[in-house]
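How it folds:
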Amino acid sequence: MDEILLVSSLLAAGIRLAVPIAFASIGETISQRAGVINVGIEGIMLVGAFVAVWLTVISGNAWIGLFAAVVAGMVMAAIHAYFAVILKVEQIVAGIALLFFGLGISGYGFRLTIGAWGTAVPVPGFEQLNVLGMANVPVVGPILFGQHALVYVMVGLTVLIAWMLRATRLGLIIKGAGDYPNAIDAVGINVDRTRIICTVASGAFAAVGGAFLSTAHLWGFVEGMTAGRGFLAIACVVFGRWNPVLGVIIALIFGIADAAQIRLQSYFPGIPYQFFVIVPYLVAILSIAIGSRRARTPAALGVPFRKAV
């Protein structure tokens, strides 16, 4: 029974650790499906994490902090869209610039605001729910009924986005912008506008991931706290073959691997903890190596659209 409870605890924690990666993965899937790579989502997540904490502390309401984070994430992504889609700048270069901008502005903003107060600031963040009063049911309760509200939001959005991409006209337009931009331009659809909207949407999702990390998981902000989760999200997109459901499943694997390495540190104190910390990143490297061989990349991914003359 102890082993079953241990596995239950591991899975419940793994889900919570996977949520920031999963949100960023969903957004990056939409953006890449439309033809825009955004490697700067790590920076957007950091800005989202900081803004969420700041506004949550000021307002006393975590939902207000989340809304502010979404707005900040969309502004950050709009900057990327301007350079990548309008100015046709190399998307990887623009994304790297956005990453460092996010690293700097989130840390600077923190030092100017709540970080300058000199004392630890309590964050009235998201609490774990007790859905239908079943969170204390052994084994399945903590996994299915004792998560944060954003976990259930993430599951609903994953299904919605997957359905949108697969079965709606909007999904066909987004995929067309990433695969056959000249074809959808020929039928009167504005490719650049489609790509801009999808890129801005990806920023909103990435910011929610960062906000979850700071207001639901860690209840505070530390510079660089995303610790590579944005890059793990990109790995999820590739290994998930640009399918949001598969991407979230891969994010869950990363989350469980992360939860496992934390527990293994206490079981094997004689082994340097750095050995366990690298486990999720090894999984990411293997995922990209395997996934990139089997996946079909959107044909016009990373290619600026120029009208045929």
In short: Residues 129 and 146 are 5 Å apart (CA to CA). Residues 2-33 form the longest helix (32 residues).
